[in-house]
Amino acid sequence: MTTAVRVEGLRKSFRRSRRDGGDVEVLRGVDLEVDGGALVAVLGPSGCGKTTLLRLVAGFERADAGRVEVGGAIVEAPGVHVAPERRRVGVVPQEQALFPHLSVAANVGYGLRAAGRADERRVAQMLELAGLTGLGGRMPHEISGGQQQRVALARALAPAPSVVLLDEPFGGLDAALRLSIRSQVREMLRASGATAVLVTHDQEEALSVADRVAVMRDGEVVQVGSPAEVYAAPADLGVATFVGEANLVPGTARDGVVDTVLGRIPVADPGGTSYAGVVTVVVRPEQVRVAPSARGTATVEDRLYFGHDAMLRVRLRDGTAVLARVARGGGAEPGARVRLSCDGPVVCFPVASDR
Amino acid sequence: MARRGRAPLGLTVPAVLVAAAALLPVVYLGVRATDRGLGAALDVLLRARTGALLARSVGLAVAVTASAAVVGVLLAWLTTRCRLPGAAAWRVAAALPLAIPTYVAGFAYISRFPGLAGFTGAWLVLTLYSYPYVLLPVAAALRGLDPALEEVSRSLGHGPWRTFRSVTLRQLRPSLAAGSLLVALYVFSDFGAVSLMRFDAFTRVIYQSYQASFDRTPAAVLGCLLVVVTVAIVVAEGRSRGAARYARTGQGAARRATTVDLGRWRWPALAVTAGLSALTLGVPGLTIVTWLSRGLSQGGSLADTGRAALGSVTVATLGAVVTVAAAVPVALLAARHRSPLAGAVERASYAGHALPGLVIALSLVFFATRYADPLYQRLPLLVFAYFVLFLPLAVGAVHASAVQAPPVLDDVARSLGSGPWRVLRTVTAPLTAPGVAAGAALVFLTCIKELPATLLLRPTSLQTLSVLVWEETGAGEYAAAAPPAALLVLVAAVPTWLLTRRGGGL
After folding, report:
1. Does the structure show a pLDDT above 80 at A176?
2. Chain A, nearest residue to B414 by Cα
3. Which of the residue ranges A11-20, A47-56, A121-130, B3-12 would you say has the lowest mean pLDDT?
4. Which of residues 153-212 of A touch B (CB under 8 A)?
5. Interface mutation vs chain B, best among A101, A151, A155, most B CBs within 10 Å
6. Cβ distance A344 to A331 under 8 Å?
7. Where are the domains of chain A?
8. Mean pLDDT of A293-305
9. Burial of B422 (0-12, 13-18, 19+ CB in 10 A)
């Protein structure tokens, strides 16, 4: 498999306003590889530099240091800055930015005309891919938000770029729409065989849409992996708490098991770095088993009902609060006494290991 | 939607050159004012008469700006957002006063109502003929306003009036501020109305002092004082705009604005609109027609008028093309790259309009006779004067429309394979074209109306309508002044009509 995008040691600082003085280092040496045909989500809290990374790959900003390769060609390196129009990098901005003076078809065909191949068949093909057949003559303000989103993606895909960059593509859409648009966008990307990088702060979105997730924090990529890897084997406590919900429980580890208030749990050890001693244990809510028991020492404090399942907040005798995801109807009423146990394996980190 | 990072040199260099050129007459005026030493200049400046003159001029500017803002916003709202009977015609009528020169209007009013002479007449005429500077940008902003904002306000429990004040008016603030600034500058620059109404504002006094003596110091010093006043206005305007940005923040493209059904209130609204047009168009129209019929019945000739018309169109077209072309880099820089340099360039471009055409012309006459004699009373010098005078109009219009093309559209276009030039041609230009066209029309109209600079700088062989009206009026030949005055109004009205009918950028 070829590498569509390779980012190495990318750095970027912005000058603060003159009054404050000094620079803000937004990217502190970012490394990232995106395989051809992959859909990679760059996941991070707002301000972590993910949008800046995207703008550097697109060529809208110049890097201070590091390199960017797109489709095997170096587009950004010390002394090298390929103009955005020569990078073959498609962009779908957060606000979509459809050209308001052009029809839907003209928006989609814009990049084709730039390349000197005004191909109506390709436009029609892209409109079909976007499920917009027959709407080519409409103006951007005459179609719905979801349709505008698809037009923006079709426009970016039309010239068959090496990679498409999507900046918070589902940010402004309501939840019901978001789910359907998400799968439509995924299908459009799959059907066109495009490589895509999407930037998001929504971990659920990143885990559900992407093949690979790159977690960014404070201007660095701290972990790259499949959604399952990132979720099951977070690189550190920060990633563990940012990607998905997590109970952090103190424990004592030795010989591949850890003793906690939830009992003795096997330790997942994919990297072979087994800790001994006092650790913080990451217990996902769905790993917590709740058994109603009159002799239980824990009390259910609250229940959030989601339909397909429910989340319980359980208070242990020592005061620790634990979140537990329970199957529909499988939980207990608030106030009930319960006994907790844990399905292993779990990940643990030495106390004060990071962050 | 200004961008971080540095503006491209291809934009900065032309913009700085334009700003420098626009500042040339002002700077040279300063040089000339202190030609006979700082003492002589201070002597003029510290006279009690100068203080009284300043107070009179400022008072007039404040009064006119306030009334023009009220009239402009009211008419903009009535003609764009309300279902008035004959709305399209009223939209044209409301913008038309822009086409009528103040010396034509002033003549019409003073000849019919001699009692208006003084402050009242100057205030009335300047308000009636300058409010379109507020109306046009505010109407454009009203049309471009996202109706969702008003709907949100209504849904938050604010009534229509409160919504208008707290949402609509707030959104209109940039265009209202820009328009009001233009009105204030217009008042300070006006020569026709104040001289005919015999109100001793800056321009009239400067003109008299230039006529009265060979000493150029008083005229130059008072001209410099005017620059100080205008710079103060421009700085105040910049502060009032502050850090507020008015780009849409939501997703996708905006819907079109909705119109309001006034119900019973549409008849009073219609009366206001019609009454104003009677004052701005009816009174001068009637006066001109009266003199015209009197002149034609006595067998007057129209040959002079034809020659003058050709001259006017020639110089105004040159002036509009040169000025708008020069305005584009300045406006793009100011709209897209917020930086101290961009702000300085934009402010510099405003300085020219602050000076009355008379003072610009004087400065250029001084300059040409000393350094560039071959240019004296040649077309390039006149076109240069128009460029200096009317650059603010063009920059304002282009700036307002540049906001319609946010930088993110450039980014997308670039990523789709368009080089900077193609982006300009296919994205930036189409989106800003309405504003650029509006700017060109505005400059063209204003060049045609322009009197003092044309009077002083035109080639001796070239006659224009404005100069012909002025000369014949000065000679008391009202019947002979009527044909060029009528033509002046018509020639200037046609582009206004076209632009307003298309409803695009204006």
Report:
1. no
2. A85
3. B3-12
4. 155-156, 158-159, 161, 172-173
5. A101
6. no
7. 3-88+161-232, 246-350
8. 86
9. middle
pLDDT at B24: 87
Q: What is the pLDDT of residue B504?
A: 41
Which residues in chain B are contacts of A100 at CB distance < 8 A? 253, 404, 431
CA dihedral over B45, B49, B55, B61, signed as positive or negative: negative
Q: Which residues of B touch A (CB under 8 A)?
A: 4-5, 250-256, 404, 406, 408-409, 411-419, 422, 426-427, 430-431
What distance in Å separates residue A96's CA from the closest CA in chain B? 6
- pLDDT given for residue B242 in this prediction: 47
A148:B412 CB<8 A: no
Closest chain A residue to B340, measured at CA:
A18
Check residue B433 and report its DSSP letter: H
Decide if A52 touches B, using CB distance below 8 A.
no
- Name every residue whose Cβ is closer than 8 Å to that of residue B56 and which is 6 or more positions away in sequence: B119, B199, B200, B201
Asked if A13 has any chain B CB less than 8 Å from its own CB, the reply is no
Q: Tell whether A97 is within 8 A of chain B (Cβ).
A: yes
DSSP character string of B27-70 = HHHHHHHTTT-HHHHHHHHTSHHHHHHHHHHHHHHHHHHHHHHH
Q: What are phi and psi of B119, to 5 degrees?
A: -60, -50
With an 8 Å Cβ cutoff, are A91 and B412 in contact?
A: yes
* Number of Cβ within a 10 Å radius of residue A305: 11
Q: Between residues B32 and A70, which one has the greater pLDDT?
A: A70
pLDDT tens digit sequence for A1-37: 688 999 999 999 987 655 556 788 899 999 999 999 9
Considering only alpha carbons, which residue of chain B is nearest residue A59?
Answer: B415
**B417 → closest Cβ in A95, A115, A145:** A115
Domain B9-241+270-502: CATH superfamily is MetI-like (1.10.3720.10)
Q: Which CATH number fits domain A3-88+161-232: 3.65.10.10, 3.40.710.10, 3.40.50.2000, 3.40.50.300?
A: 3.40.50.300
Is omega for the bond preceding A345 within 30 degrees of 0, making it cis?
A: yes
Compare all CA atoms of chain B with the CA of A159 and give the residue at the minimum distance: B416
Measured at the alpha carbon of residue A278, what is the angle toward residues A274 and A280, in degrees to the nearest 5? 80
pLDDT tens string B113-153: 878 888 999 999 999 999 998 998 888 888 777 777 777 77
Distance from CA of A229 to the nearest CA of B (A): 33
* Cβ pair B417:A96 closer than 8 A: no
Tell me the per-residue pLDDT of A71-90, one tens digit each, with 9 for 90 and over. Answer: 999 999 998 999 888 889 99
**B251: distance to nearest CA of chain A, Å?**
5
A27, A56, A88, A110, best to mutate vs chain B, most B CBs in 10 Å: A110
Q: What interface predicted TM-score (ipTM) does this complex get?
A: 0.79
Q: With a cut of 50, list the residues of chain B below it in pLDDT.
A: 1-4, 242-253, 503-506
pLDDT of residue B1: 37
Domain A246-350 adopts which CATH fold?
A: OB fold (Dihydrolipoamide Acetyltransferase, E2P) (2.40.50)
Q: Which amino acid is at B432?
A: T
Rounded to a whole number of angstroms, the distance from the CA of A54 to the nearest CA of chain B is 12
d(CA B484, CA B480): 8
Other Cβ atoms closer than 10 A to B165: 13
| Helical segments of B403-477, H only | 407-415, 420-423, 429-449, 452-457, 465-474
Q: What tens digit of pLDDT does each residue of A213-252 get?
A: 999 999 999 999 999 999 988 888 889 988 888 899 888 8
Distance to chain A for B9, nearest Cα, Å = 16
How far, in Å, CA of A4 to CA of A202, rounded?
24
Using a CB-CB cut-off of 8 Å, the residues of chain B touching A141 are 252-256
